[in-house]
Amino acid sequence: MKKILSTILATILCISAFAQISVNGGYLHTTYNVSQSGAAGNVSGNGFYAGVGVEIKLADYSQLSFAPSLNFNLVDCNLGEFGRFNETFYSAPLHIKYTRPIDFTSSLFVSAGPSLICTCESWEFDDFDVAMGVEGGILLSNHLKFMLGYDFGLINQAEGSTYRITRNILHLGVGYKF
């Protein structure tokens, strides 16, 4: 038992020694695609996100890393004559990232992978979603990063009803890597 605990502790220390932490935030645009019996439409809203992330280099591949993050998101949707609603949710992108250096202090990057999404407020639709996302950007001066990404919602948020609702998210952000 001591050997297992020692191995786990050593692994955590090694991962944290090679991990780089970043704070991120920016604009997001969410589109809810709604369909019922052949008729379709969408509802969209604008908002912001803020969060933290880590980047863990993969040992054998210097340009690849595992880049999970946790974001808080707030979206304001206008339903026209039906009013407005705000949605708050957490998203946890679990991306694999590829980085290509431009020079000694700058690099381009692209990442892809699943995102786990959990709605903060309880409503009549599903509170959990899974999306597949892609993100690209540039890192300047080894610290300042600019990102653009898109997540494609995979789960029907109105499970058990006659509607089908999926969520797609476009985000544009800035971050600082420590």
Q: What features would you describe in this structure?
A:
- This protein is mainly beta.
- It has one helix and eight strands.
- It has an eight-stranded antiparallel β-barrel with strand order 1-2-3-4-5-6-7-8.
- A hairpin with a 5-residue loop joins strand 3 and strand 4.
- The longest helix has 17 residues.
- It is elongated.
- 22% of the residues are buried.
- The mean pLDDT is 85.
Please state the average pLDDT score.
Answer: 85
DSSP strand count? 8
* Number of helical segments with 4 or more residues: 1
Assembly status: single chain
What is the approximate shape? elongated
How many angstroms separate the termini?
A: 36 Å
Strand count, sense and barrel status of the largest sheet are: 8 strands, antiparallel, barrel
Order of helices and strands: HEEEEEEEE
Strand content: over 45%
Stretches where pLDDT falls below 50 for ≥5 residues? Answer: none
Strand order in space, largest sheet: 1-2-3-4-5-6-7-8
How large is the radius of gyration? 19 Å
Q: What is the percent of helical residues?
A: under 10%
Structural class call reads mainly beta
